[in-house]
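Appendix B. One record, verbatim.
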Amino acid sequence: MSWFPERQQHSWLQRTCGSILKAGPIPKHVGIIMDGNRRFASKNSMDRAEGHLRGFDKLADTLDWCLNLGITEVTVYAFSIENFKRSKDEVSCLMELARQKFERLMQEKDMLQKHGVCIRVLGDIKLLPLDIQQNIAEAVNFTKNNKRAILNVCFAYTARDDMCHAMRELASGVSQGLIRESDISEDLLQKCMYTSSCKQLDLLIRTSGEVRLSDFLLWESAFSCLAFVKVLWPEFSVWHLYAAILHYQRNHQALQNARQSSKLEQDQLTRESDYRSVMEELDKQADEKDKLQERISVQDRVQQYATLRQARINTFLNQLEAERTNMLENMVSKRPVSCAS
């Protein structure tokens, strides 16, 4: 006998509907703009801090629902760079909430390891208070090898800042001689972004009824399904998630076609760039051009160039990854022992 028979019925219905959904394509990576915490607080006559806390609790529920469906990666918009323009009290409240939650995560290390949860924080974390930077670095480093489920937290993030950051990385790579200007492509730009470690974004959900992306995953959502839900984030339910997934399934084939078309176009552009680079090199060696063409065909030379290009790119990306890893490790090493315990 159940204390809550109506909840038992609800749970059975939820499982049944989930099983039906899983008969179709399920998104592997879902992005969420968790909008409406402040309006929820106002609507329910509570202070904003309580509204943000309710929003965090809703995230925990949503991650469980996603994992049960087989959605193994979720990216959430926790704090935009633009949010620094809010009132001092609200910014302080959000920072304190982040501080508490990341500290709580580190108190539950065994659970994170048991469930294989990987935490990533995407954004310019140097804009955050030092102790929060160190909390973030510890959580990211501790969980980096976990594979079962991934939570990406966009904190001190905007998509435009991410793209600008990636372009600065590319410019630095060219100036250091690690890559050439001709090596730069859409794919390489994406690999320089904070989101480079994420899977392809399948579904993006925004709550509160607003129909805009607010500078969130602009690049990544180019070939994703968008679902705008007319409910405040703390009121988001499993049924809203199911509806968004059903919307994704209805559009799945069109998204796949668009992605495939884009990939073919980008591959063609890369081949054309390699060919132009080879011909430019041959033009600079005009006196030896005929001898070179006799000894090796242009097609083979283009293939050799493509191999060298990929080697340059790999070296550049490996150095970039090492720099990011060292930054996080240095943050952890500078953390006072009393705070880390």
